[in-house]
Amino acid sequence: VGNSSVLTCPPKSNTTMVTWKISPKVGGPCTLGYRADQNKTDRTNCSDSMNWKFRPDRDPALEIRQVGIAHEGSYTCEVVATEGNFHKTYHLTVLVPPRLTLYCDDQGTPVCKAAAGKPAAQVSWVLESNSTPKEEGHDNGTVTVLSKFTAYSTNVTNTTCVVSHPAGNQSKSIAC
């Protein structure tokens, strides 16, 4: 999320037409088109964040700027050339790294929170713990995971929360 993404399309010599057909999970479909005989581009219902990366007559790649969860979906490039028609389809999944916070609750128990990640983060503790994480789903498809540290022994002073996620792993330590 937040980065730019470039989806390539098979570049062919003697291209007649290139069309990107985009079907996001949220909102209606959109298309970007290019006709070589008229050297003309066309866009229908596409947001400003989606456009040709370069000139479509040279390279038909699609660029999505500031990728958001709403960009998830199917992206198909169709190239019409003298040697035939060519298709390439992408299924875009957007990863959202969770925000990690670690704090002590009113009872002095460490609490680890991995907020608004997509997909849900895995939360664990460096020291052995029998905690059961709680998950809370949000309307935008992100998930917050909350885990309270429950130690097997009472003489634990410092502990570390580890958050594993496809967008990157994080850890923080605390003494309560």
UniProtKB/TrEMBL annotation:
> GO: which molecular function terms?
signaling receptor activity
Q: Which InterPro entries match?
A: CD200R, CD80_C2-set, Ig-like_dom, Ig-like_dom_sf, Ig-like_fold, Ig_V-set
Q: Which residues form the Ig-like domain?
A: 1-93, 100-175
Q: Pfam families annotated for this entry?
A: C2-set_2, V-set
For the biological process aspect of GO, one term held by this record is:
regulation of neuroinflammatory response
Q: What is its main location?
A: membrane
Q: Please tell me one Gene Ontology term that the record gives under cellular component.
A: external side of plasma membrane
Concerning its family, UniProt says: Belongs to the CD200R family.
Q: What name goes with this protein? A: Ig-like domain-containing protein
Q: Which organism is it from?
A: Aptenodytes patagonicus (King penguin)
